[in-house]
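User: Ubiquitinyl hydrolase 1. Structure?
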Amino acid sequence: RTQDPAGRRPSIWDKDSKARPTARQIHDAIQLLMMDIPTTAPIESNVLVPSNEDTPPHFQRRPDEERLRLDATKGERGEQQQQYAEYRPGSGYAGPLSPPPGTQAGPMTPGMGTASGNSNPGMEAGVGAGGNPGPLMEIDEVVSVRDQEAFAAKHLPEVGHDVKDFQVYTWQLNNWKKLDKKLTSDEFECGGHKWRILLFPFGNSTAAPNDSTVSVYLDYAEPKKVPEGWHACVQFALVISNIHDPTVYTVSHAHHRFIAEASDWGFTRFSELHKLFHPQEGHSRPIIEEDSADITVYVRVLEDPTGVLWHNFLNYDSKKETGYVGLKNQGTTSYMNSLLQSLPSTKFQQKMIPTESVALALQRVFYHLQISDQPVGTTELTKSLGWTSFLQHDVQEFNRVLMDKLESKMKGTKAEGAIVKLLVGKMKSYIKCVNVDYESSKIEEFTDIQLNVKGMKNLYESFRDYVAVEMLDGENKYQASGFGLQDARKGIIFESFPPVLHLQLKRFEYDMQRDAMVKVNDRHEFPFELDLGEFLDSTADRSKPWVYKLHGVIVHSGDHHGGHYFALIKADRETRWLKYDDDRVTPVTDKEVLEENYGGEVAFNGLTRGNQVPAMMRFTNAYMLVYIRESAIDGILAPFTGEDTPPHLKRRLNEERLQLEAKKCEREQQHLFLTAKVITDETFSRHEGFDLATFDEKNWSPFDLPSFRVLKQETYSAFKSRVAQHFSYSENQFRLWVLVDRLNKTVRPDTPIPENEPTLTVEVIRNNMATRQNDLPLYLDIIPDPSKPDPPPQSIMIFLKHFNPSKQTLLGAGKAYMLRTSKFHCLLKEIKPGMIELMSTHVSFAQSEIVDGDVICFQVDLPEKESQDLESQGLHSNANYFYKFLQNRKDGT
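Assistant: Predicted structure:
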């Protein structure tokens, strides 16, 4: 593109082609050039501006959307409403079109996080830390970074929270290529806090060691001076712009909850450095020009009325922040948790629940909700209902089952009829003839009302639909007794509403086209105050207004196939609304109670319906509403005190709580302890089977194999003193042997614990002498002569078992210290289960490889006839056969 010598019009040609362009090509090229004029370039009066008549058909666009208008007097580009494909300022774009003029695209995905590289674990995008907008957007005009109002409107989308303070700060940087690797701007104040810009002009080496990337963050300047629990909720935009032309820039925006542990937030990959030094498509000058650039930050400090805006909940304490605790989710029990959380708030209902079976489990939950500092479990309640924690249920179904169970348990108690008094209303179904005096009616009780959502704007319309009158006429006339076929009105009218009114919104319906149940996510509004007077029969008692206050909203998030429930509860007249989401309880605003649970369309980033993409439907919406009659609120929501819990129930529940706390403490300290199990001669004498005893806890009682819970750092002398006291021995009457697992899978005494090292700890003994074992198995060896505490020299300790063929028993018969060189007569040696060897009488113990702890079995030698008689009865005539029997029995089990 050049100017011709006369300076009248641009001349256009393909410099690489000898062929001259056609008139159509020239016209099309001019159209494209017109869209590429720099925003700061003066527009000459002799520049060709084609009219619509001159524009080829494929360039004509709707005037209100995509026409390019030039303002010659201001010398700036006017409004351009061309639709760009998913353009994200500062984060690149998707699609074939260019970014909007006046804005250069940043990196495709700027890495959002702290300067230290943390992405703030636990925060969800758009919740804990917002990023650039993702929906399709229309770019209406090019703005200057210095036009604060217009720039903020374009690049800081509304997030639905009140603004406490708004400030803009610009930092000019020169000699960019010579800047330090890290630098900060001067401080500025916004919202009562001091802030600064943190810049890594060549990339943050900690998080992304890449010198081709610019990293920039908003940094809180005084993180070490803030009090405990300090936070600031901030929405901000970071901009790098040309110092001469502030319409040439790259921008990224975010929102973040600044805390002392996460005091900076921004973009590690804000922009590729080389793009800042070169003009990008649609621009004649770069962002960094003459080695200089402006960095501007737009900061909005937002109000946080709930105290949990964009909280990551990593160290959140529900009891401390709200005074309430939640309920543990067993897996799929959010339906139960959401309803149960609404019941304790109706204190009258809690007081009337009896104290046995299902009711006891429910009272236990309520009691712990009052006194516990931690989320309360509900396992016992689901078991008492016969429900599994892995099966999802509908909250209305659970409500009806629970109320039926409670009502049956209340029969015959002083609380009988309390459910009816609190939760049951009456309605009349009627058919009334138009032309004759005849009416057929039936009065029924109800515990909840199911209201249509589809096609209904709000709760009042749903009630009017519920009581709408249907005309029975024409071919559908009513057969009135004694009057024949008559025109009639058919409908429902309410006789009374209960003090606590449960309304179920019919969010699920059958879709004939899909042949499946689907969720109705239509918008349906409900008020904080509901006047039901118009839906009552004319004969109803109106001495008190039928005005109800919203007490609870049970919300379903998901679809027909599955989802999650949570509850929004207002505990009394004065307290704020709280959100009970399983084990977490948080404050919420009125908007979160109403607007965010109406259902309907979701607007993106504050964009209006006229300029947003086709809206998505909210899948999180109100499913059940709990209203309390205003005249009864004070009695129903009366404070629940300790005196309201029966003394016997309180005593029982406190004992259970203390036991659970003790077990929990024991589990938490388990790593500090080990278990020492002690075998005695008495244990051996009663044991029938292999080894000296069984260590399978299923097959022995604590009396058979005494166990000691021992601190790992306890000294051996202190531990031995405890053992002596337990068995009523003096410490010099016994020694303790460590039992080891042999390679042949037997457990036998191996080495006596040395008595000359009193400071030796139990853990050292276990690690050095009883390897491959978590516990410490010991054998208590009685010393016949305390004056000779050590075993005889050159001796071994062997254990003897006696097989009694007539009784078919194999029991321990004691132990003996034998010289290694001694010989013996016919004995069976117990090597391991399944390996029993007959011992030779002509060799010594040493030659038979007998060592400490080995077991030798003996029996009376039977005559051949006695052996045959036993075997004919299916009995065992010798120990070898009996051992095989024991082995087979063990293998069979």
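The first strand starts at residue 2 and ends at 3. The two ends are 94 Å apart (CA to CA).
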